[in-house]
Design goal:
By secondary structure, the chain is mainly alpha-helical. It has one domain: Monooxygenase (Up-down Bundle). Helix content is 79%, strand content 0%. The protein has four helices and no strands. It is elongated and about 50 Å long. The relative contact order is 0.20.
Length: 87
């Protein structure tokens, strides 16, 4: 039971790890300090974790990584929206 709580806490922190970056991009309308290769690499990693979660039938792993991937996709969308608009 304790490990499920630890896993849930870790998943929550990971799921929303990119929300502050999204807020900063929206606030500044700038992505000059955001690394696209890092976003792509991290997205591939969480996608593979989600697949692994499906394989081991672990809903926490699946859910956390799907939400994480969603925030990364939003971040990448904002990256392309604001890329080139930096002063």
């Amino acid at each position: 039971m304790i490990w499920q709580a630890v896993g849930s806490a870790a998943a929550t922190l990971t799921m929303f790890g990119f929300v502050p970056q999204i807020q900063k991009i929206l606030q500044t309308r700038s992505v000059k300090d955001v690394s696209l290769p890092m976003l792509i690499q991290f997205s591939l990693g969480v996608f593979l974790w989600a697949l692994y979660g499906v394989h081991i039938e672990d809903n926490i792993v699946i859910f956390a990584n799907v939400i994480s991937l969603t925030t990364l996709i939003i971040t990448m969308g904002l990256y392309f929206k604001y890329k080139g608009k930096d002063a």
